[in-house]
Amino acid sequence: MKLISVNVGVPRLVMSNGEPVSTGIFKAPVPDRVMLKTLNLEGDRQADLSVHGGSSKAVYGYPSEHYEYWEKELPEMDLPWGMFGENFTTEGLFEPDLNIGDKFRIGTALVMITEPRMPCYKLGLKFGRSDIIKRFLASERTGFYFAVLQDGELGAGDRIELIQENRNGVRVSDITRLYARDRHNVELLRRAVEVEALPESWRVYFQNQLQKLTAS
Fold first, then answer.
1. Against a cut of 0.90, is the pTM above it?
2. How many domains are contained in the chain?
3. How far apart, in whole angstroms, are the C-alpha atoms of residue 14 and residue 118?
4. Which of 55, 84, 109, 143 is the most buried (most CB within 10 A)?
């Protein structure tokens, strides 16, 4: 497993329905090693902290292998690393294999998988097409967020080393599936709400779903 590219960016204004919108989704690769801290990478910023960033979404990872799929889906588009707004373009990490709570060392930093990425309208602004939001979610190629457990320095080419596997059996892809197409899976909902590494907002959301399904 490897870190293919490290991508950062600061918020910029783009037009949406004739109105200016600030977004930090525009990321570009950096050649040098950078510091990863509790809330983000050195040189990186989020525009709307109510839905982006924070301790559970400090950095966003996206598999380099997914780019081949999107190149076939969107042959007319140029897709450089960082196109999906990811900070880490990775190799060897896949949503169906990653447990919520898995811990990794990258460079001298220690990170933990927390949740999948749910697309918002700003992904549509980045791609210049609103249909990408539904297509992104339907593909279940969501990527994943990391929390930072230990600050450190990292750079493209670094190994991504699994330090501790969370054997709770709830994967990144399971969270996406519960949200998008398997909302009535009571057994999986029960497991998800018990995962301490899953952000509270998700656990509350799934607990509410569970209560609706099991109410007499």
1. yes
2. 1
3. 21
4. 84
